[in-house]
Design a protein that fits this description.
Blueprint (H helix, E strand, L loop, with lengths): L15 E14 L2 E7 L4 E7 L5 H9 L5 E10 L7 E12 L13 H6 L1 H4 L3 H22 L4 E2 L5 E2 L11 E4 L2 E5 L4 H11 L1 E9 L12 E10 L3 H22 L1 H6 L4 H5 L7 E3 H10 L12 H8 L6 E4 L12 E2 L2 E5 L1 E6 L4 E8 L4 H10 L8 H8 L5 E7 H9 L20
Parallel strand pairs: 3-5, 6-10, 12-13
Antiparallel strand pairs: 1-2, 1-4, 2-3, 4-5, 7-9, 8-9, 10-11, 11-18, 13-16, 14-15, 16-17, 17-18
Helix pairs in contact: 4-6, 4-13
C-alpha cells in the first residue's frame, strides 16, 4: 500500500492507510496507547487499542521511544476533538529506526542547549510553524516577481570588493587573490536591470558585523529587485505593493502555523496599502517629540527605528536620509544635494528595518568621484562604472531581508529561529 501524507488524511476517511513518519509524543491509558505521529506534513493521533491489534504490536507501541521512525497502518476516522479533525485507528505498527535518549524532551530547555541541537530542534511543532512560514514567504517573493515579468538574475557570492562598506566583509583566499563573501547582490543586479529592464536576485548574503542584537545574523537571505527607468517614488510603490502581497500570502495560506505561534493575525491583516511615508527630517521631529534626540546626519539604530514604528500600525517608509550615512551608489536628491534618494521600510511592532533601497547614481563622473571619496578600489568597480558609460538610465531597487520579515510576521523575539541553522557572532555550529 502506498503511503499517505498526513496533510491529505481528510481524503481517506473510512479507508485503511499507511503512514511513514516519526513518533512525536506518546501517552498511554491502560489498554490504549495514543501515538502522536508526524511525517513532516503534519501530526496526527494514532490510537492503539489492545483488543484490535496483535499482542506484539501493542507491546511495541508501549516501548517505542520519542522520535523513533515508524510505519503505521490503520483506518482513518473522523474526530472533532483532533486538531486535523481525524485520527487513525491502528491495525499494524513497524519500527524502522530506533531513537534512544532523544535529547529534546517535552520539558523546558535553554536557548543555548536548543541551538546546540538545532539539527533536532527543527523537528518541533513551533519550529515547523516558523520554517513553513519562511517557506511561504520565499515562495511568495518569487511568485510576486515572476508573475510581473522580472527575470531571475543570480548574482555571485564571491566578489572582488565591498558593496555595503569594507568593515563588514568576510574575506577568503581565491587562488592568488583575495575574495569576499557578498554583502548584497545589488551591484551585479544593476547589470541585470540594464539588460532585462526588470530583474531580481535571491540568495544568501554575509555581513561580518560584531553584533549580538536580536536582529542580526552573519549569514542571511535577501531578495533584491532592480528596475530600469524607475525613480525613488516608483521604488517606494513597488516596495509597499510587494510587502502587502507577501504578508497577505502568509495570512491566506498559513493560518494553522500562525495559530501555533499564537500570532495576532489582526495586526498582519492591517498591513494594507498605502503605507505611511515620512522624510528623515520628519522622523527626527517624531523622535524629538518622543524625547529621543538624534543628531542630523546620523543613521537610525534599533531604538530609534522601534520608536518610529510605534507610531504606525503598518510598515512605514522613511526616505531621503543624509547622503553621508548611506552607501556610495545612492543618487543625491537634486533638490538637496545633502540628501540621498533612498528609503528604508521599518516594520511595525519594533522589528526594525526590513527593506533598504533607493535610486542609484546613474551619472558616470559622479559615481566615479563617489567611489574615490569612499576610498574604494577603482579597478574593482570598473565594470560597474561601465553600466553608466554604455546607455545609462535612472534605475532603482531595494533589498528585503528574509529573516527579519519572518521574525516580524511570526512575532518572534529573535532572528535565530527564522533560519534552519543560524550563524551568529559566537555560533558557527551545528
Amino acid at each position: 500500500m502506498n503511503a499517505t501524507y498526513i496533510d491529505e488524511i481528510g481524503k481517506h476517511e473510512g479507508e485503511e492507510v499507511t503512514l511513514r513518519g516519526w513518533l512525536y509524543n506518546k501517552r498511554s491509558s491502560g489498554k490504549l496507547h495514543f501515538l502522536q505521529v508526524r511525517d513532516g506534513t503534519g501530526t496526527i493521533q494514532c490510537v492503539v487499542f489492545k483488543k484490535e491489534v496483535p499482542a506484539e504490536v501493542f507491546a511495541l507501541a508501549d516501548h517505542i521511544a520519542q522520535e523513533s521512525s515508524i510505519v503505521v497502518r490503520g483506518t482513518v476516522r473522523a474526530d472533532d476533538r483532533a486538531p486535523l479533525g481525524y485520527e487513525v485507528g491502528v491495525t499494524g505498527l513497524e519500527l524502522v529506526g530506533e531513537s534512544t535518549d532523544y535529547p529534546i524532551t517535552p520539558k523546558e530547555h535553554g536557548v543555548a542547549f536548543l541551538l546546540d541541537h538545532r539539527h533536532l530542534w527543527v523537528r518541533s511543532s513551533r519550529q515547523h510553524a516558523v520554517l513553513r512560514i519562511r517557506s511561504e514567504i520565499t515562495h511568495a517573493c518569487r511568485r510576486y516577481f515572476d508573475e510581473r515579468g522580472f527575470v531571475l538574475f543570480d548574482s555571485p557570492i564571491l566578489t572582488p570588493a565591498a558593496c555595503e562598506g569594507t568593515t563588514t566583509l568576510f574575506e577568503t583566499p581565491y587562488f592568488d587573490e583575495t575574495a569576499y563573501l557578498t554583502q548584497s547582490g545589488q551591484l551585479y543586479l544593476e547589470a541585470g536591470a540594464l539588460a532585462f529592464g526588470k530583474a531580481y536576485c535571491f540568495g544568501p548574503t554575509f555581513r561580518a558585523e560584531k553584533s549580538k542584537t536580536r536582529r542580526h545574523l552573519m549569514e542571511f537571505w535577501m531578495v533584491e529587485p532592480e528596475v530600469a527607468y524607475m525613480d525613488l517614488a516608483g521604488d517606494m510603490d513597488l516596495a509597499e505593493d510587494f510587502v502587502e502581497y507577501v504578508v497577505g500570502s502568509v495570512v491566506a495560506n498559513r493560518a494553522h502555523e500562525l495559530a501555533v505561534l499564537e500570532r495576532d493575525v489582526d495586526r498582519l491583516k492591517s498591513v494594507r496599502k498605502p503605507f505611511p511615508r515620512i522624510s528623515y527630517e520628519q522622523a527626527l521631529d517624531l523622535l524629538h517629540d518622543k524625547g529621543i534626540e538624534v543628531a542630523w546626519g546620523a543613521d537610525f539604530g534599533a531604538e530609534e527605528e522601534t520608536a518610529i514604528s510605534e507610531s504606525f500600525d503598518r510598515p512605514v517608509l522613511v526616505h531621503r536620509y543624509p547622503a553621508e550615512c548611506k552607501a556610495f551608489y545612492m543618487k543625491n536628491d537634486p533638490d538637496n544635494e545633502k540628501l540621498a534618494l533612498c528609503v528604508d521600510m521599518l516594520a511595525p511592532e519594533g522589528y526594525g528595518e526590513i527593506i533598504g533601497g533607493g535610486q542609484r547614481e546613474d551619472d558616470w563622473q559622479t559615481l566615479k568621484d563617489k567611489i574615490a571619496a569612499h576610498d574604494l578600489p577603482q579597478e574593482a568597480f570598473a565594470w560597474y562604472l561601465d553600466l553608466r558609460r554604455y546607455g545609462s538610465v535612472p534605475h532603482a531597487g531595494f533589498g528585503m531581508g528574509i529573516e527579519r520579515v519572518v521574525a516580524w510576521i511570526c512575532g518572534l523575539h529573535h532572528v535565530r529561529e527564522t533560519i534552519p541553522f543560524p550563524r551568529m557572532l559566537e555560533r558557527l555550529t551545528p
